[in-house]
Amino acid sequence: MATSVWKGHLTFGLISVPVRLFAAARGERISFNQLHKVCHSRLKQPLMCPTCNRTVERSEIVKGYEYEKDQYVLFSEEELDKIEPPSARTMQILEFVKVGEIDPLYYDASYYLAPEEGGVKAYQLLMQAMKEAGYAAIAKLTMHQREHIVVIRPGDKGLTLHTMFYSNEIRAAESVPTNKEELKDQEKKLAHQLIESLAAPFEPQKYHDEYQDNVKAMIAAKLKGQEVTEVTQPHLAPVIDLMEALKKSLAEKQGQAAVAPKKPPVRAVEPAPAAAQKKSGKKVAG
Known about the structure:
This protein is an alpha+beta fold. Among the domains are: 6-25 and 83-167, Ku70, Chain: A, Domain 2 (Beta Barrel); 48-82, no CATH class. It contains six helices and eleven strands. It has helices at 77-82, 120-133, 185-198, 210-223, 242-259, 274-280, and strands spanning 6-12, 15-23, 48-49, 54-55, 63-68, 71-75, 90-98, 107-115, 135-142, 147-154, 159-164. Strands 1-2-8-11-10-9-7 form a seven-stranded mixed beta barrel. Strands 3-4 form a two-stranded antiparallel sheet. Strands 5-6 form a two-stranded antiparallel sheet. Strand 1 and strand 2 form a beta hairpin. The longest helix is centred in the C-terminal third of the chain and has 18 residues, at 242-259. The radius of gyration is 29 Å and the shape is extended. The model is unreliable at 266-286 (pLDDT under 50).
């Protein structure tokens, strides 16, 4: 069972559901250690106090907020626990919204929301009702010393929860040009055709991290004493004639589709006559 990052109750109206939260995804990457170039020893970063000029143990650490230069107000873990809001233990649904109304820009981290013992029926009721109504739930949740606004969505197997950025945390798209260029009908038609030629069902398993694959190959080559192969980079020329670029892109895509190997048609296998099946010793299903 995955490690829970939060336990408490999910409430809507007078119904309370004991639930737990655990991460739905995690980033995977190859990490490198920092080594001393001279002797290849791994470097360490101890917690040093510049005033006492010694290493500090974890038990000696307190939290402080710098309100002026080098001036801090101190807090203990017990004091921080005292100011936890109700959402630290109870996740109250504030409202229900249509998922399509939420800009994906607001999504942060994803979690699975699972019911605890005694809350399965109410959990399934909420999930099914949300799914049939086409709604997601907005709630508040406090964990890791921060109160998050979260959206809860019904899935095929359970509820998923996403922490969200607050509106003041979303940066304005200042670099995006707002002036509109005049687009020709033929340009839009070719752009639509190019999009359709690249359209495909979403299959996340076919995407992978090419850089991480290259790092693994580089490590394997180094271990064998081989040279590292440089990856060929594409040459990107500036687009001068948009119409010509669209035509070439579409022709190239259509050419790739023409040479792609076609899958052989699936033929239905005719069942053998009962007499032949008996002769071969196969049992005939009734």
